[in-house]
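Duplicate of #3305? Posting structure anyway:
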């Protein structure tokens, strides 16, 4: 993020009224519990204490911890033991060693004053992630400074420790507004260096990224802190617009824009930058090792721009490109995807972006309030602006199980690879089978990369099943299907009534027929031709196949005419991703907030299904299932 550091630091620095403590500390008076022990009669101990107290004034001195530990070891009965113990606890906390600090605290509980003991106990609890206890012990300091000289440490260090602990605990307990207010107090501590103030801003922004829009609105109700409004304001504005509260959204946007300008964050809120609804963005690798992937996505997406429109007043859309493969050395944002999304959002004023997956890029998109359609199975979550257009592989497995159950299958077998991905798909398939009233009667695995399957299929042949699922790609299906035929196990057409097949789908000698199911990623006309006779009736769920259906006929025809080859699933997903942005505009979206609302609530008939997104912005419509029927492959109705 661009912080506007100088202006922000000056504003927050001028707000501080807290005292500085840069000079060496004087020894504390004797603690009441140890009065008279090792006191005036221990000049050596007194001298040692003065040395360690002066050293503890610089808590980041690597020798401060060792010198305090040595003092407590050699002077266990000195009247300054409470002061030395408190200093050591503070030093350990500031150096990030909370377990050691808690041990020292427990060993010296009887010697520390109650207020100091409670204060350090709360700090230890916070760093040890017991946030509820931390807040209960430290809540008196939410709006007040700790007493001067707490623990005998420099006051700025103690205040920083307190504010950061309270911020983390408040956020963990679901109070982002108050947490960011504590970070604003952290930034205002007198004696802060620029790096410490920058930390407070960055941490506030990290909190804000994890806050959903409605929660951001709630957090800003009645809040006066500038930092919270600056970092949560964008999400709150977008959430108000999404629920149709234009008046409050406009008012808050003006207010937040002024605060962000005052603090030097941005010249104006990203949502205030006008977007052109006819300009669509695409960020894919156009160079480097993945350039071929980018080319394939682009050729599918390009057909969206030239597709005919059914709108009353036809308009010309424009496609703006950025290279996702640009290295960090060429981008101050650390990579091509992040820089590409921001460049398209701010410079090209696009209304939305299609992008390959990139976590940091999705975070920047959320801050900009720009819709992103990700060519990925994983969305950015409900609080992001990123929608995942690709069905998860587990979803495809579940869909195949449900279709087989609907056709009457009740006994299921799995023949799959002994890999992490194979196990995940098998688990998803089995769960769907059992939820639907079926059972798994066989689960046989083969080694990754296997090319022969005689032993595995022989084991399978002994067991009863109505449907056989192969959770692997098309290349493996091309090897397994003929091997099944050798064992006289053949696919059964889903067009036949299943009850009549029940007697055939049993164990024992003779021809066996069962539904054959596979996710079959990468399936193509060529791979099917190689094994055509062995896969008749097979049900496939690869995401997309250029088969014979009215849904994709126009796209396939145009694609072949332009590129001289059949489209792949990657081409289809590239098309669907950009089609969603165009479709949202053709349905009346004129702002980025409009696009977010339309994508989140409406259904689009795409090449890969009737596209619909859930609350977490992942696809919830069932993927298409295809069936091999003679020389063609068609969508199973």
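Output from current build:
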């Amino acid at each position: 993020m661009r912080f506007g550091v100088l202006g922000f630091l000056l504003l927050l620095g001028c707000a501080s009224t807290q005292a500085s403590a840069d000079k060496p500390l004087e020894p504390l008076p004797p603690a009441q519990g140890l009065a008279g022990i090792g006191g005036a009669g221990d000049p050596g101990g007194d001298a040692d204490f003065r040395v360690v107290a002066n050293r503890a004034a610089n808590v980041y001195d690597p020798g401060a911890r060792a010198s305090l530990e040595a003092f407590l070891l050699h002077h266990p009965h000195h009247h300054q033991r409470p002061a030395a113990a408190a200093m050591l606890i503070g030093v350990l906390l500031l150096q990030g060693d909370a377990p050691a600090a808690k041990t020292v605290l427990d060993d010296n509980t009887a010697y520390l004053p109650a207020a100091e003991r409670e204060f350090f106990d709360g700090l230890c609890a916070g760093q040890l992630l017991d946030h509820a206890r931390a807040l209960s012990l430290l809540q008196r300091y939410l709006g007040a400074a700790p007493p001067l000289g707490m623990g005998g440490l420099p006051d700025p260090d103690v205040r920083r420790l307190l504010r950061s602990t309270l911020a983390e605990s408040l956020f963990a307990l679901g109070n982002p507004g108050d947490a960011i207010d504590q970070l604003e107090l952290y930034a205002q501590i007198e004696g802060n260096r620029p790096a410490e103030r920058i930390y407070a801003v960055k941490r506030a922004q990290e909190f804000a990224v994890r806050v959903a829009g409605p929660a951001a609105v709630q957090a800003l109700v009645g809040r006066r802190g500038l930092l919270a409004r600056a970092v949560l304001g964008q999400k709150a504005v977008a959430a108000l617009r999404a629920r149709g509260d234009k008046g409050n959204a406009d008012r808050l946007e003006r207010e937040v824009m002024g605060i962000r300008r005052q603090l030097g964050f941005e010249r104006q809120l990203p949502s205030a930058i006008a977007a052109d609804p006819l300009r669509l963005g695409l960020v894919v690798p156009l160079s480097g090792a993945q350039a071929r992937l980018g080319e394939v996505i682009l050729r599918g997406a390009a057909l969206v721009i030239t597709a005919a429109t059914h709108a009353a007043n036809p308009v010309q859309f424009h496609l703006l490109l950025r290279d996702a493969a640009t290295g960090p050395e060429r981008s101050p944002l650390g990579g091509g995807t992040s820089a590409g999304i921001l460049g398209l959002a701010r410079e090209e004023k696009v209304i939305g972006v299609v992008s390959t997956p990139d976590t940091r890029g999705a975070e920047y998109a959320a801050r900009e309030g720009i819709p992103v359609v990700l060519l990925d199975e994983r969305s950015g979550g409900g609080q992001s602006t990123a929608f995942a257009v690709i069905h998860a592989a587990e979803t495809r497995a579940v869909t195949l199980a449900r279709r087989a159950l609907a056709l009457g299958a009740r006994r299921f077998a799995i023949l799959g690879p002994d890999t992490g991905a194979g196990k995940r798909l098998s688990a998803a398939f089995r769960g769907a089978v059992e939820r639907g009233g079926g059972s798994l009667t066989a689960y046989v695995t083969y080694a990754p990369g296997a090319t022969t399957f005689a032993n595995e299929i022989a084991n399978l042949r002994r067991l009863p099943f109505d449907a056989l699922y192969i959770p692997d790609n098309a290349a493996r299906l091309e090897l397994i299907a003929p091997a099944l035929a050798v064992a006289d196990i053949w696919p059964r057409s889903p067009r036949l009534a299943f009850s009549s097949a029940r007697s055939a789908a049993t164990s024992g000698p003779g021809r066996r027929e069962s539904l054959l199911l596979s996710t079959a990623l990468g399936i193509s006309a060529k791979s099917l031709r190689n094994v055509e006779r062995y896969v008749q009736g097979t049900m496939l769920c690869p995401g997309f196949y250029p088969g014979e259906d009215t849904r994709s006929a126009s796209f396939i025809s145009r694609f072949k005419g332009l590129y001289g080859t059949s489209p792949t699933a990657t081409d289809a997903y590239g098309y669907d991703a950009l089609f969603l942005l165009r479709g949202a505009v053709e349905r009346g979206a004129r702002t980025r907030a409009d696009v977010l609302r339309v994508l989140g609530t409406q259904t689009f008939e795409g090449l890969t299904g009737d596209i619909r997104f859930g609350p977490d912005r992942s696809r919830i419509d069932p993927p298409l299932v295809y069936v091999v029927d003679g020389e063609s492959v068609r969508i199973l109705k």
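Confirmed duplicate; merging threads. DSSP finds 24 helices and 15 strands in the chain. Residues 1-40, 328-335, 500-507 have pLDDT under 50 and may be disordered.
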